[in-house]
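Possible race condition, two jobs.
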Amino acid sequence: MTLARNYAQRALALDGTESRAHGTLAHIHSFNRNWSAFLQGLDRVYALNPSDRVSVTGAAVASFYRGDIDRGISLYRRAIELNPADAANMWSFAEALYATQRWETAREQAQTVVRRAPDAAFGYAVLAKVLSQIGEVELVRSNATAAESRNPGLFEFVDIALAYQRIDDIESARRIFKLAGAGDLSTTPNPGWQFWMHMAIEDYDAAITFLERAIAENFPSGAATHLHYLSEHPDYDPIRSHPKFNDVVKTVSQPLQGKDAV
């Protein structure tokens, strides 16, 4: 984080209008849970370079976090127009639609990702997760299998495992948990990732512990930003009644003080 901040500041000393340097500082604010500065930074990036796909995607994210979903969708579509070959950006859009529970639109977008990147795991994984919310059980299984056969990364494993959990196939979720090496902190210490994987196997006490740790360690920011801005994210539904959940939400709503402030 310190290196990222230093290089961004050096870039801005050379050119104060360098939008991606401003974007780096904005994301450092998100890791520090300085939410207002984070969103203002994304606004600044977009104002400086509204024709850059990265700038437009940042503005889309800011719109989603502010609850302006229609504007966020419009901006994501604009970002895809600017770089129609970027399947990863399409995947990000599908995940955002999923987070806001727009199931059919998310399904369409995930299917587009699969068509554009048929040899990659991430499209099939997010499609399986979307379909699990719609109740298409057999399609969940076929897309999860397709994702698993395409060398999934850590967060593809999350989507696959959560999809199985949603259709009440905990045995398959546990198989993915084991396959991914979840629970072995010597191999994968990322507490945010561990949180989602333990959610998938319905070990909610362990999941809450990992979520608390992710927030305390300030890494990764995704767990914190989702809780702060997208508290209705469907993947949190199974632990909303956990006795510690509301306390965690309250914790993450407070800006981190005195650590790596930009």
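Job #2 (started ~2 s after job #1):
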Amino acid sequence: MTGSAQRPAALADAPVLVVGAGLIGTSIALALNRRGIEVHVEDVDPVHAAVAASRLGRIPPDLALATAEPVLVVVATPPDTLAAVISAALRDHPGAVVTDVGSVKLRPLAELAAAAERGSARPADLPRYVGSHPMAGSERSGPLASAADLFDGRTWAITPHGTSAPAAVSIVESLATACGAVAVQLAPDDHDLAVARVSHLPHLMAALTAGALRDAPPAHLALSGQGVRDVTRIAAGDPVLWRQIVNANSDALQALLGEVRRNVDELLSSLDAGDAGRVEAVLLAGAAGAAAIPGKHGGPPVQLVPVTVAIPDRPGALAQLFSEVGALGVNIEDVRIDHDPARAYGIVEIDVAAASGEQLAGSLRAGGWAAHR
């Protein structure tokens, strides 16, 4: 959507400044740009700044604000720099609302409050600051990985603090809406516990699992299937960025990791004692937790089943399979591809609604595919 008709009123009259031209910052700029909102990007790295400008269809150095002061400054810098950059934005743009899109909210807020107490920041500026966090991202990083639709349909947490001005909260909510996201308000401490549970802890678990593969014999790794790829995929994220995120949210993570440690210790004891019942209880708890994850668009969980299809490794084969599934009126909820190292074939697992699984497998077999439910 483009054009002024779709601009949120709060963002229509003055530009938005994005500080930080990484994946998230550049994606925000692209999302606002497609809505016809004037947006400018700054970055300490001139290469990132130039790439962001090119993604916006501009030629460097057309990056800085011209004469109009921004209505909103979005700080999209690494976690370790957030408080300093937020403080600078509040100082340099006294008429603007300032938000950040960092993964952790309590630490930068505490650092801002401490700066105000020391006198290095003005307490009167804090009502213009409202934290936020779009729940979207990628294992890739940098402006080249950015996309205007990165936030479409995603949750965007808005985390006002005790002195945040209502008008400032409204402007940050308008940012989330303009980027295609669904705004949800959370207290900063509740946000940090939530992301520790659903994002930071899973990343650490993926890193631990992937780390156990580092010195594995090649013969063991040759047995890798889609399961281990699913579990370890997010471990490929930028280690430097994730070190900052984990350190910034250490309090919430320590509590959750302590719970995991107790469960691992109990599982080890159960294995040592041959307590199959307790082992099964751990697996049942895992299945229950997986089933509790909301369905797409935040709706209720939908029971899915995989339909496995052998597919030749040739151009157009996957498109043909998807076309035939679509012609059968079945919606593909998720898909995974595992390549057979010994043959020119792949195994495609298509997740569909449970009620469609058997019928889809039968229809595909009738069409000549090697498929089973």
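DSSP finds 13 helices and eleven strands in the chain.
Logs attached separately.
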